[in-house]
Design goal:
By secondary structure, this protein is mainly β. It is 4% helix and 47% strand.
């Protein structure tokens, strides 16, 4: 799993039928200090994430393991909206304060 922040949406009116009904989001990858790495991916949203939220996403064959994406041609899936992250006893991210 990887950390990322939702920075936008992708709309495609013409697409493979297996992608119909899936919400696609632009996600900027974050490092352990929550700084943007510069990498941006398109991920299918399986959990209803919103603009600016920090999320966990999976890539590769793991992206096809959710109920929403099972057996569909996707490489990235958003599978959790992050509420808090702690490391070494310190809060590194808190959605209520930072989001």
């Amino acid at each position: 799993m990887l950390l990322g922040r939702i920075i936008g949406t992708v709309v495609a009116t013409r697409k493979e039928p297996e992608l119909s009904g899936l919400r696609m989001m632009l996600v900027r990858e974050l490092d352990a200090s929550f700084a943007a790495t510069g990498k941006i991916i398109v991920a299918v949203d399986a959990v209803g994430a919103g603009q600016g939220e920090v999320v966990l996403y999976a890539s590769g064959s793991s992206a096809r393991q959710t109920q929403v994406t099972q057996n569909r041609p996707v490489d990235h899936v958003i599978m959790a909206v992050v509420d808090t992250v702690t490391s070494d006893g310190e809060v590194r991210y808190d959605k209520q304060q930072d989001g």
